[in-house]
Specification:
The protein is mainly beta. The chain has helices spanning about 5-15, 30; strands at about 35, 40, 50, 55-60, 65-75, 85-90, 95, 105-115, 120-130, 135-145. A hairpin with a 5-residue loop joins strand 9 and strand 10. The longest helix has 11 residues, at about 5-15. The protein is elongated, with a radius of gyration of 24 Å. The N and C termini lie far apart (about 75 Å).
Length: about 150
Amino acid sequence: MKFYYLIPLFLCLAACSGGAASSDEVDPSIIQNPNTAEGYDNTVAMPHIEFDTYQHDFGRLTNNESIAYSFHFRNTGNADLVISRCEATCGCTVADYPRRKVKPGEEGYVTITFSSGSKTGQQVQEVTVLSNAQPARTKLRILAQVGR
């Protein structure tokens, strides 16, 4: 039998299996993050968004009720903070945020409005705040118990 069609397969497998970089070849500067577990590095000019709280419980709501909560934040970094957008996990949740630069030390609000509609039971909705800060994504969560 002729197995000429297997030669390209063996060549591909041989090329893919070799050349793995060892851990001592990785440049550590590539993976360093100025906002590490050890704390925020203020030597790098970068905004840092810090919220007073990251979760709010509306408690009990009725159907077709619309309610809002404003999450207070501060730019604790040393560069202008820009919130590019806020993404909600559901169409029943809308976020409003500052469309201007937030200077270091300045404060602002991300206001989340939840519409219960015809939902029932425990509701958990998340809004992801996308910004030029480190970390670039911050999750805010709202909770509600919706009854009839």
